[in-house]
Please model this.
Amino acid sequence: MKPDIKNYDSFIFDLDGTIYRGNNIIPGADKAINTLKDLGKKIVFISNKTTGRLIDYYNFLIQQGLNIEPDELVNSTVVLSKYLSKHHSGEKFFAIGERVFIDEISEAGMIYSEMPDEIDILLVTLDRTLNYDKLEIAARALEKGARFFAANIDDTCPVDNGEVLDAGATISALEKRTHRKLEKNFGKPSAYMMNEVKKRIGDNLSRTLLIGDRLETDISMGNTFGIDTVLVLSGVKNFPNGNENIKPMFVIDSVFELVK
Model:
């Protein structure tokens, strides 16, 4: 059974695996989004991906034919940057993350360092250039008392030909290496991300539908905040692994089924 879009005024969409996968749009995703926009529905896209700036994601979606506005997108880099700018401006950080992520965090008023003795905060996110040296800098920083934050906790990220390791796997390795636990996550399903969403669609979530491909982030976020959820089967493979109690309200093959 699929949801009746007439019952909802606002729609929260994941991006990777839901609207696109790798460099390819999910078939019919453009038609789904544009139909909802034509019906006057509020739309917000939320992503845990940090390997590009929001303007990059916006431009990509526009090129794929989606009728959207720049302020309808939120990613975990933006959420994290706002928090760090407010609470930790001027402190030194090390990131397991790619250059664009490091640059955006630096622009928020933080100072990048690779010296474990002076690192105040360790940040972890998707890093396709991850290596042993980065892991050891991070581990030594944690052992010396650095705060332990994550931009996201996804175990994998969907790409064109499958999935790649994401922040969750790195976090687990560091927790085992240092016996430190992650302190804060700023991506889905966190309240930090939800607060940014509410700025765009309002506080009343009773007529909101959240659509995503991952149980432990997308569907968990909807369940936590009392939002109806749709699991799409166009993205990652979902395995139980402690997620047995995370249940979506609806399951569909792709977002196109919302308006098909």
Remarks:
- The mean pLDDT is 94.
